[in-house]
Amino acid sequence: MFEAPYLLFLGDAPDGLAAKMAQGIYDWRPEAVAGQIRMEGCNADLGIKDLSIKEAAAAGVKTLVIGVVNRGGVIGENWKSILVEALESGMDIASGLHNLLRDEDDLVKAAQENGRTLHDVRIPSVQYPIASGKKRTGKRCLAVGTDCSVGKMYTTLAMDREMKKRGLKSTFRPTGQTGILIEGNGVPLDAVVADFMAGSVEWLTPDNDPDHWDFIEGQGSLFHASYSGVTMALIHGGQPDALILCHEPTREFMRGLPDYTLPSIEDLREIALKLAQIVNPECKAVAISINTQHMDEPAALKYLDEVEKKMGLPTVDPFRQGAARLVEALV
Amino acid sequence: MFEAPYLLFLGDAPDGLAAKMAQGIYDWRPEAVAGQIRMEGCNADLGIKDLSIKEAAAAGVKTLVIGVVNRGGVIGENWKSILVEALESGMDIASGLHNLLRDEDDLVKAAQENGRTLHDVRIPSVQYPIASGKKRTGKRCLAVGTDCSVGKMYTTLAMDREMKKRGLKSTFRPTGQTGILIEGNGVPLDAVVADFMAGSVEWLTPDNDPDHWDFIEGQGSLFHASYSGVTMALIHGGQPDALILCHEPTREFMRGLPDYTLPSIEDLREIALKLAQIVNPECKAVAISINTQHMDEPAALKYLDEVEKKMGLPTVDPFRQGAARLVEALV
User: Fold this and answer.
1) Where in the numbering of this chain does the D-glutamate N-acetyltransferase-like N-terminal domain appear (chains A, B) (predicted)?
2) What is the per-residue pLDDT across A306-327, written as a single tens digit (0 to 9) for each?
């Protein structure tokens, strides 16, 4: 969709949190990042080279990526002169903000005049097909969760990186804007029209080598009343061979739904597997990924051990322990 | 969304099949239909009053409904003079065709000049909310199927009409274009953006009297790889109290998916109920609706009897037998 190397735009971020998109891109794909560009008053710093637009252009930067969110997710008027200069210097711009680059007349004009492209990654840029349900070659692994935001993206990214470290064939397949900004491509699944959801996931994970694994970023949860349809489309479009069950043990209720408590990991395994086996009878739940960020180390390790014994599956927090055991569970 | 009485536009339909949308509207809602309008060469006939635009306007028609499909689902150029005359005579126009009224410049112009509205029912006209998952008052019944196109719309329409015949409180809630054209409102669910699917179903089935039933038109199937996400959103957005299980027993494979055979009605009951109980623990599968159109009467009755015994639920073909026993299963 868009090309590295990236220049990460931190704008006038009031603090590091406002630039967490840039941080995520740099953490997961440092080799794609040529440097950062910051405006006066910016309080975020990735600890990497500061480049002017001129320097970035000279360094061969292909895309300026907006890695900052200000209040309301809008495109700052005070960013414009830098963004226009980037377009004039031969860079494309990528953004995951709610407000779209394509709705800013001055950016559209500068992009047209300079033959550049504005990538709004929240908006599908492809006319996806209706899903065919046909079996594809290659292997696929999907993260499913007891809730939204329990670490599904982190888990699949970590597994993909671990595979590559081992010299194994692997691709991370993003389905949300952060993942898309990291990888430079993907499907913004929550913005796809209902009829084409599963088809967009098929499109994202096409035929591949028999020993190649796609790591598909999960979205929502089968147990989340607002987004379960999106999760369902991932399961049926992705046709996973392997499911990773993701959970956050300290959460008291479903994200954004105070009337709902979380299901058990057993419930998730049972229902996700049953639905996945409709399209791939060989699908297995192979491992469990726990987000223990709200537990101290001894409590976390004790919990992981208990879950592993109860469920009979390798159980790790990839943030604390790395993704090695998750990847080994695939093979 | 749009108002009765309707004038059903049959255009230059080459045969009755091309006008089956008009036939459906008249079959299910004859009281909303003032008459039909046919062009020269039209070979379809609903057997109701032919009205000119002038006569229809004098009879108080509020909406001309395009009830004909020509090849490609486009709006015929030769229809235009009649459609413009309708707009000039104070009628709105409603269409479920793939090609949109709003993309026809001459119709848009005539609508603007006359203060009329063009209703393209395949396209959402509302900014739906994200689903909240909150419990609503009133009762809801959802048709779920082992496959697409097994009679879910027919079943819920027939149950709604039977309820009304008995003086009970009931509303049919359409989620597809045929249902929307019949009812004059609804949600074109397959065209809703992923994040808002469940929210659109909540919006469609709001709080109501404790003894009021919504009959929600089903879409797709949990077992259909292309559309299962849409079905999931209906189950979690609809929060049904009662499920009707729909099945077509002679189908050899899933509609459009030659690699997939149909699940059993038991499989459907098990998984649909488990998913529905996430949002409504009281949900029950109350009855079975079988589409026996491809069986002769003795074979159909024998099959219905067998299923009823095996599943322990009232089992009928509402087309052959009416919806009385389905409605009784609710109470």
Assistant:
1) 39-124
2) 999 999 999 999 999 999 999 9
What is each CA distance from A43 to A72, A76, A149, B20, in whole angstroms?
A: 19, 16, 27, 65
Record the tokens describing residue A81, joined without a space: 């002169």
Per-residue pLDDT tens for B66-90? 999 877 778 999 999 999 999 999 9
* Nearest residue, CB atoms, A198 vs list B133, B135, B229: B229
- Mutation target to probe the A interface, by most A beta carbons within 10 A, among B187, B190, B277, B278 is B278
Give the residue among B141, B131, B321 at the shortest CA–CA distance from B241: B141
Domain range enclosing A184: 139-329
Is the residue at B165 inside a domain?
Answer: yes
Q: Which tokens sit at B179? A: 């249902």
Q: Which residue of chain A comes nearest to B256, CA vs CA?
A: A132
Q: Which residues contact A168 (CB under 8 A, 6 or more apart)?
A: A211, A213, A327
3-state helix, strand, coil in chain B (%, to 5): 40, 15, 40
Chain A, nearest residue to B189 by Cα: A194
**Interface contact A131, partner B, CB < 8 A:** yes
- Is pTM beyond 0.80 here? yes
Q: Based on the fold, state whether residues A90 and A222 are members of the same structural domain.
A: no
Residues of B in contact with A273 (CB under 8 A): none
**Type and span of the H or E element at B95:** strand B92-95
> Are residues B143 and B69 part of one domain?
no
Residue A229 contacts B where some CB pair is shorter than 8 Å: yes
